[in-house]
């Protein structure tokens, strides 16, 4: 996406593929304000990205919600960090899928405290679990997301723990996505639709379905 649009609401509509209410935009703005404020004390996002945080972090995370379709019942964001994309998804889900259960898994105590505080302040239906991904009780989510967390082979291992049998993974990946998918197929069977990022020509969103571990030879 190049240039600036008339408003941030137009930005979100373009990236999401549907218009959003003023209330949703207010939630996203309030979340961004809290993200930047807390980032002055704890490392939530890189300092170099603060000036372009709306595009680099909020809109980039909005993309994932465009892949939520139909009756969305449960979403799990693993390694949530500062809430990207999990908290952004929660802001959007409050309008379009208010009945969905959202779980954010984050092991760092300060980051988990940030997520809990923001969810409470914004009135979002979010459960924050302070735990390591591999130790947290399985969530059995319909959708699992993760951003800038791990290489694809390990990432799919994390996702498999917390997704339902028919679940879908929404995984933003950078320029090495082809190699990561190739390496992941050594340990996993899966179907993947790869959608170009609307913000970065070198990045994609991998939509992974039918995830199943490759059986070890006996």
Structure description:
With 218 residues, this protein is of the alpha/beta class. It has one domain (8-213): Rossmann fold. The chain contains seven helices and seven strands, in the order αααβαβαββαβαββ. It has a seven-stranded mixed beta sheet, sandwiched between helices. It starts with 7 loop residues before the first helix and ends in a 5-residue tail after the last strand. The relative contact order is 0.13.
- What is the CATH topology assignment? Rossmann fold
Termini separation comes to 50 Å
Total tally of structural domains? 1
Mean of pLDDT: 94
The coarse overall form would be globular
Structural class: alpha/beta
Tally of DSSP helical segments: 7
Give the helix level as a range of percent: 25-40%
Strand percent estimate: 15-25%
What is the highest CATH level, the class? Alpha Beta
- Over all CA atoms, what is the radius of gyration? 17 Å
Task: Note poorly predicted spans.
Answer: 1-5
Name the helix and strand elements from N-terminus to C-terminus, one letter apiece: HHHEHEHEEHEHEE
